[in-house]
Amino acid sequence: MSDIAREAGVSKGAVYLHWDSKEALFDALIFRESERIVDDLLRRIEDDPEAGSIFSLYQLGIVAVIENPLMHAMITKDVRIMGDFTRRWAQGKTNRASEGHLFRTEMVRQLQAANVIRDDLDADMISYVLALIRYGFLTVHEVVTPDQAPPLAAVGRTVGLLLERALAPEGGADRAAGKLVLENTLAMLRQMVRQMRESPKV
Fold first, then answer.
1. pTM, full prediction
2. What domains, with CATH codes, occur in the chain?
3. Closest Cα to residue 153, out of 68, 71, 74, 64?
């Protein structure tokens, strides 16, 4: 807290007026960055005429997380950046992982209903495979060095295109309906983050 106060150019007491511990300050930072990513995704989806498909979701979503160093470190549990905070957040991992899976599966079902994802595949299975791809994206740096990796934007486009060809209904996705689902889902996610931020405990 002393280091933070010094960097911010304020007294240590001034910091404690807002956050009663370094843990509380860290939580506030995580929630703020989460909201920033959601807002960034909403802007990107609204501005992208191609949005509304699995292609756009992965091209925009995963790239947005990777480009945010703190959120990338939190998701990949990078102890070099997160330190002891990784263990504290891991204590609630089971509940958060369960809630995250339910959230992802429900989004898949809504995209199936909106004719964005083919409905002859099991929603739980699709959700699981998408999680595999997402976490592979976030942890591939452990086995592939940066100089060996293609440009991030190009990788995002390629993965999105593969998903589009594998999961889109015959005749193509209804992008307008899909865009509405994605916007509604992100708005709900933003509300969830705000509720967590206002809760006395993580």
1. 0.64
2. 39-198 (1.10.357)
3. 64
